[in-house]
Each structure stands twice: as C-alpha cells, then as structure tokens.
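Example record

The entry below shows one chain as it appears in the dataset: sequence first, then structure tokens.
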Amino acid sequence: MRTHRSVGRAGFAGRSLSPLAPLALLAFVASLGALPAGCKADYPSCETNKDCHGKEFCVANKCQQCRASNDCPAGNECSSGKCTAIPGYCSSKAQCPANQECIANHCRACAADKECPGGQHCVAGTCTSKKPCKSENDCAQNEDCVNGFCTTEKPPAPPPTQCSLEAVFFDFNESALTTEATAALARDADCLKQVGRVATLVGHTDPRGTQEYNLALSEKRAQSVRDHLGRLGVDGTKLSILPRGSLDAKGTDEPSWAQDRRVDFNWK
C-alpha cells in the first residue's frame, strides 16, 4: 500500500502546473480584453480617415478621393468624391491651341488687351506684342506702321519702278484739271496700276496769296488729282495728300509761276 501511494504521489507530481502558467493565462485574458467590441467595417466603408487608403477622406462613412476641389491636384475638380480633369484647363499658353490664350486657367480667345500679359495687345482673339496700327500716327516716333502693326524693323525696299509719274499743272488760282492735266493723269493712272505702290500727291501753288490760302488751294489741287485717278481705277487708299502751299515756290514771273502751280508724285 505504501508503495502504491508513493507511486500515486509521484504521478500527481508529474502532472503539476509550471510556475509560468499563471502569467501566460493572465496575458491571454488581457489580450481578449483588448479586442474591439465589434468588427471593422469593410472598405470603402469607414468610421474615420484612418480607415481609408492613402490620402483619401472618410465622408458620410465612405472613403473617397476628395471632399472639395482644393483636395485635388491642379487641373482637376472634385466631382462625386472623385478628382476629374477640368475640360480646357491650362496653366500656360503652350497647353492651348494656336489661336487661343490661357486666361484664368482656361483656354479661350482673348477679348481685350487687359486679358493679355505683359502689356501685349489682343488682336483677332490672340495676344501679341505688336501694336496694331492704321497709320504712322498710331506708332511711336521710332516705329513704322507695317502690315497693320507698329514695328521698329524697316519695311523691305520696294521694287524698282518700271514707269515714271508726270506732274500735273494748273491755271492761276484754279484747282480744276485742264485738258493737258487729264491727259497726263491717264498715263499716271496706268503707271500706278502697273506698279501697285503707295504714292503721295504733293500740292503746290505760286508765291502769290497768303500762306493759309495757298495751303488750302494746294490741298484742293491734290484732291482733284486723287479724285480723277480714282475714276480711272486707281486705288485711292494708296494715294495720300500733302499740301505744301507756296513753301517750295521758286517763280518770279508768269512763266516760272506756272511751274509752281502743280501736283507732284512721290513714291513711298
């Protein structure tokens, strides 16, 4: 019997708990207490931004790319929680078609000079550094009006003329054309139409009369010449008038005064 009890005690001792068992049990119970009370929502459902991917936002318990357009990169806008490209968006003119400008981050044609950068001018919907002009008076003193724009570049030299223009002479105190004058203008009209260049009609008078009267008379003479050339088919926009009055008069008697009463042609 003693031997049997000894063996029984030895067997019970063999099944005794390790000294670390209570600590392991406590750690297991503590881990159970750390588990959440409920299950985590499946993506894209969310409770906070931490439940979403990357830079997404939790909005109304759903993960989405943006809350407003300022959450999106440049050129995109927030639409239904997603960043989508803005049609026609631009950050520079290089991103726009050739006939459009980048204005307020949108490609479109300009409507006024104020929409162009750096003091440029809006011409036919595009911005240009060239100032539009109709005549030399629209340009700075060191610029010329060439092909509708002010430029400091000199226009190319005109082709050599293949014909010459004759001066037209007038009777004393008259701006009406004589028979000889109309015959000369017929030849001048052929020359002007052949060359196609711009010319100036310079009106003159003899020295008799006041300066104001002579300037007005010389302008009337030049105007008579231009009107007649227009009737002969010459483009009047290519003929300008310069009244000189008696400023260039050299005559001292009737024969020489007759040479003063004329309209000259100067090629431009």
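Notes for this example: The chain is about 25% helix and 20% strand. Residues 1-14 have pLDDT under 50 and may be disordered.
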